[in-house]
Write a structure and sequence with these properties.
- This protein is of the alpha/beta class and about 170 residues long.
- Helices cover about 45% and strands about 15% of the residues.
- A five-stranded parallel beta sheet has the order 3-2-1-4-5, with helices on both faces.
- Strand 4, helix 6 and strand 5 form a beta-alpha-beta unit.
- The chain is globular, with a radius of gyration of 19 Å.
- The model has no long low-confidence stretch (mean pLDDT about 80).
Length: about 170
């Protein structure tokens, strides 16, 4: 539902609203899903989301939960999930920003039915490995999985930035 029903004063006002509604509805037709830990948001993340946005009318970004990061990377995140979500919001690239569902990490596939899932150059955990089979299970075999290249990975990587922050705080 885009808006509530309403009466229009003129035929031209109705036509104008219909044109607006068409544009608004199309923005929901082609969602692209991105996800990552986004521990310390940096230019590499901006590059990743900007690249994904080129394919999207609606860019959906899923932020990993703190406990998910600890389990996958064996380290607590530098910033908690709410701070990370706020940092992604400030970039202004994603239309929808959500925090990972711990119980069903594939729920976002069911809800949004993305046409593209854009992976970062270094995303390599089980969730990623199981994506093709999950897409088949959910009847989303048309969904494409693409991988974004990196932007100076020796400079823009959260683990490297975390090490630099530790050195500065000593």
């Amino acid at each position: 539902k885009l808006r509530d029903n309403r009466k229009f004063e003129t035929l031209e006002a109705l036509k104008s609203q219909i044109q607006f509604d068409i544009i608004a509805s199309k923005s929901l037709e082609f969602p692209v899903l991105t996800f990552w830990s986004f521990d310390i948001v940096h230019e590499g993340h901006k590059y990743y989301l900007s690249g994904a946005k080129k394919y999207a009318r609606t860019l959906i970004t899923i932020i990993a939960r703190d406990e998910t990061i600890e389990r996958i990377k064996w380290n607590a995140p530098h910033n908690n999930q709410e701070i990370r979500k706020g940092q992604i919001e400030k970039l202004g690239l994603s239309n929808i920003i959500l925090i990972w569902d711990t119980y069903n990490p594939y729920i976002w596939l069911e809800i949004y039915k993305p046409k593209i899932i854009m992976l970062g150059y270094d995303q390599r955990w089980r969730f990623v490995e199981w994506l093709p089979s999950q897409l088949q299970e959910l009847w989303l075999s048309d969904t494409k999985i693409l991988r974004m290249g990196s932007l100076e990975p020796d400079k823009y990587k959260s683990s490297l930035l975390r090490q630099e922050l530790k050195k500065e705080n000593k």
